[in-house]
């Protein structure tokens, strides 16, 4: 009787977990559909009138271009999201992962780690192939139509191959290490893996500027002496030490503009897109950099690293428990429990369970942007930052009228009107 009771309990747990997963998939999909629909309607409803705060700086044509560009991207994103949801269900409840496992077991029956690498790489390759048409359409159809794309098909394919090889070169060893620790490091494998994963991320932050980024773009020293003097003066004033000032050939791929600092410790460097330097004057560039330095002075990068490490710590600890629960596998369509299947399932389904946390994460990110803006207003000029942002909104075709609820759920940056109004208080 006790044995039968245990069977019933296990079946109940499996069914409960399956229904919870299905419910969250349906709920998150419906929320995404609803928010995307709201966003598209809201942007289109405000398409024919430039917001008053921007009427002197943004033309109606530019405003309408931004509305149409936003709607086109949102519709594509909606289609991509639906396909990704179907793929998720196919891989889990549809038995896709189990079929992959059955196939590779015929070749690597006695080599669990190699079989695990093969299953996980197969699933990731399938996901990438599903995403590929959407990336191509976004680049060559949408961005091409609105005048942003500068890439050729050959460049697109070259980048694709580089990303794939880089993923294998960097991700392969860490995946092998993860499966090796899961198999032979005992109950606290997840803690050892967390240390390894944290160290890996810190190393990547340090080597990315000098060794990885140059694989995709050309970086050259900033030669404009007047601008260089202004920037170095600002860096000294803000106590920021960098490896150098660099210009990135962003125009070879897109006409979008940006600026950022990257790296960690002594490898930090300041990077400007060449498209940004071509559009902004010296005062505006200084204000944009001051905003980026605001992130540095408020320790936003360090805080994000700590947050990433904290989340990965909790996630790996949770995975360590879940991999011991039979219902975690059977509830997601997998009959043969294994370390690698637990890892793959966790990577696939955790975004579904974390979906409703997106507004909180977006809110935190927007708070950081406001803090960086306030710092820029004190170290440079709020008026120049406003002028720079308006140009970037216009040239990047960023909508000035996002749906408020959609923005609160997704946007890492504050809406244009809110951000400009806040900066206006510093220049008044």
Which keywords apply here?
globular, 428 residues, mainly alpha, 16 helices, 73% helix, single chain, 4-stranded mixed β-sheet
What does this structure look like?
The chain has 16 helices and four strands. The protein is mainly alpha-helical. The chain has a four-stranded mixed beta sheet with strand order 1-2-4-3. Strand 3 and strand 4 form a beta hairpin. The protein is globular and about 65 Å long. The mean pLDDT is 92.
Write the layout of secondary structure elements.
Elements (H helix, E strand, L loop, with lengths): L1 H44 L14 H32 L4 H12 L4 H34 L7 H32 L4 H24 L6 E3 L3 H14 L6 E4 L10 E4 L6 E5 H6 L2 H16 L2 H23 L3 H5 L8 H16 L3 H22 L2 H14 L8 H7 L5 H12 L1
Parallel strand pairs: 2-4
Antiparallel strand pairs: 1-2, 3-4
**How helix-rich are the residues, as a percent range?**
over 70%
Number of helical regions: 16
Major beta sheet, specifics?
4 strands, mixed
Strand percentage lies at under 5%
Low-confidence stretches: none
What is the domain tally?
1
**Distance between the first and last residues' Cα:** 78 Å
Secondary-structure element string? HHHHHHEHEEEHHHHHHHHH
User: What is the approximate shape?
Assistant: globular
Mean pLDDT: 92
Strand line-up in the sheet with most strands: 1-2-4-3
- The tally of strands reads 4
